[in-house]
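Design job #97: recover the sequence.
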């Protein structure tokens, strides 16, 4: 695939998430601003998501495992019609995977009190994750929480707190 094809795939994934999960990002101000007339429904969806998420976490006693985690997050988003970055990224990741887009990486970045999840398309696995300047040149970011699809180089501007990146930030990779 060419860079523009990866970009088109990322945009399609964002559109898919927007049409699949009604109440997105209720842990952000933007999530509450969207659909301002549906605040009661948002509260109900958010509470349902928190309860179901806690119940599912209690049933699962293992550690965070890539593909299993992604599938569970997608199910939670679809079952509750809401999601934050992890759930929305899981929906986008599986959408891209089902369409044969590769390589794709599910990034789950935890930095103390700040964390975020997003998909990276076309990252060269031969380049260390920490060498952002080298791999970001040809990679595309898909961040459905913020309706973003763009050149991966924008990550440095959008999420400066996550640098330097670490190999452990890649939760799962296809391709």
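Job complete. Output follows.
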């Amino acid at each position: 695939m060419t860079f523009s094809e990866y970009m088109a795939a990322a945009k399609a994934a964002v559109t898919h998430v927007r049409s699949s999960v009604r109440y997105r990002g209720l842990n952000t101000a933007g999530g509450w601003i969207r659909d301002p007339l549906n605040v009661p429904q948002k509260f109900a969806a958010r509470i349902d998501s928190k309860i179901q998420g806690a119940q599912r976490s209690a049933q699962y006693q293992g550690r965070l495992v890539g593909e299993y985690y992604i599938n569970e997050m997608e199910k939670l988003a679809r079952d509750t019609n809401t999601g934050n970055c992890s759930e929305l990224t899981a929906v986008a990741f599986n959408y891209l995977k089902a369409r044969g887009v590769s390589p794709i990486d599910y990034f789950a970045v935890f930095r103390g009190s700040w964390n975020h999840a997003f998909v990276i398309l076309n990252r060269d696995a031969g380049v260390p994750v920490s060498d952002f300047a080298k791999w970001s040149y040809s990679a595309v970011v898909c961040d459905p929480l913020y309706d973003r699809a763009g050149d991966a180089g924008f990550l440095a501007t959008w999420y400066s707190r996550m640098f330097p990146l670490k190999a452990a930030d890649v939760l799962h990779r296809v391709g």
